[in-house]
Amino acid sequence: MKRRSFLTLTGAAGVAGVAATVPGLAAAPAAASTARTAAAGSSSLRDLAARIGLHIGTAVIPFDLDNAPYAEILAEQFSAVTPGNEMKWGVVEPTQGQFDWSGADRLVSFAQAHGQLVRGHTLLWHNQLPTWLTDGVTNGSISNSQLADLLKQHIFTEVGRYRGKIWQWDVANEFFTDATSTNPSHLNQDDFWVSHLGPDIIPQAFRWAHQADPHALLFYNDYNIAGEDGSNSKSDAVFAWLKQMLAQGVPIHGVGDQGHLDTQFGFSGAKMQQDLERYAGLGLKVAITEADVRTFVDGPTTQVPTDSLAQFAQPFEFGQMLKAAMAVPDCLSFTVWGFGDADSWVPGFFTGEGYATIYDVSLQPKPAFFELQQDLALGASGAPRHKDH
Ligand code: XIL
């Protein structure tokens, strides 16, 4: 099988062979120049990936664009961007009727100036909602039917504002439960939106988003839905739901697996590929939307792994994810959730963990960066070309 041999080739020997034939592969990745040229022989992630029609993205904190080295790496290495927080409802409408689009606008302009596509994130999620909304629901001043109207207005306002400028929208985020040994994954009935408006609010959100921007690709996004969860129960539940939604004609065009890994848990790249292929078999596009690989570290500032084996596991798992994405022609993009450890959400959310991204706390490329670069270099000569979109 061609695909299998591609995957085995990506072992150390195959990679070393390719590295020798790709000009500049060993060179430092972040060129000093701000003007980006997609020269033949370029070894940036975005240029290597472009050869197989894949986009390499990152989450961005728009405020960091003031930091010149950060902006240079962003322009040089990535062909897609996602605002880490700046399109979430709590950020764009902190007070009812008063909007703050500054971060999102800034990132969209940067992307347009640097030939990058934008992933919008995210319209329907239980987290990072404005407190005026959640408080209003709790104290009864916002009824369920008003809540549905507010959501509709939110989607039309935000999707409408960026109409024609967003490539993929994460319309709905994290609606399925994590499986336990006794309870398989299922649509979470306790979710903020589902508990107030019922499960039909999810397909309704897709329909509104589609009306607001008929050309944007609309994604369902979640974590542990492509090979991360040992039982594959969550992937099974999401797959069954997507199939049902598509049968009802809901405008869902893609599924995003976040790809938040932790070296202390097992992970199967082969399973990730199978799950992505299974979604693609429904006629959907797929994407890895928030890749990072965390591990235990000495502290949140320095983020040096405490287990020396993690130095190998971290880049290895990044490579496993990218290879899975590269092997599936319907996979549009591979996005990392921030590219520098100093910016990562991990130390703030997972006690004692960090080292989750591909550049260190001083924005120097880590082994994981070179792993991705080498995998892409190899893929440029062996992986299937990704479908046009
Ligand atoms: C995270 C951001 O990176 C943090 O800055 C913020 O405090 C919390 O949210 N899954 C998602 C992302 O879909 O939106 C989350 O982003 C990480 C988990």
Describe the protein in words.
This protein is an alpha/beta fold. The protein has a single domain (2-21, 42-382), classed as Alpha-Beta Barrel (TIM Barrel), CATH 3.20.20. It has helices at 2-9, 12-21, 45-50, 68-77, 89-92, 102-113, 131-139, 144-161, 192-197, 201-212, 233-247, 269-280, 310-326, 346-349, 367-382, and strands at residues 55-60, 80-83, 117-124, 168-173, 217-222, 254-257, 260-262, 285-296, 331-336, 353-354. Strands 1-2-3-4-5-6-8-9 form an eight-stranded parallel barrel, surrounded by five helices. The two termini are 26 Å apart. Residues 1-37 have low confidence and may be disordered.
Short characterization:
With 389 residues, the protein is an alpha/beta fold.
Number of helices: 15
Indicate the mean pLDDT. 90
**DSSP strand count:** 10
Topology as H/E string? HHHEHEHHEHHEHHEHEEHEHEHEH
Binned, the helix content reads 40-55%
Spans of at least 5 consecutive residues whose pLDDT stays below 50 are 1-37
Cα-atom radius of gyration: 20 Å
Corresponding CATH superfamily: Glycosidases
Topology-level CATH name:
TIM Barrel
What percentage of amino acids are in beta strands? 5-15%
Give the bound compounds: (3S,4R)-3-hydroxy-2-oxopiperidin-4-yl beta-D-xylopyranoside
Give the neighbour order of strands across the main sheet: 1-2-3-4-5-6-8-9
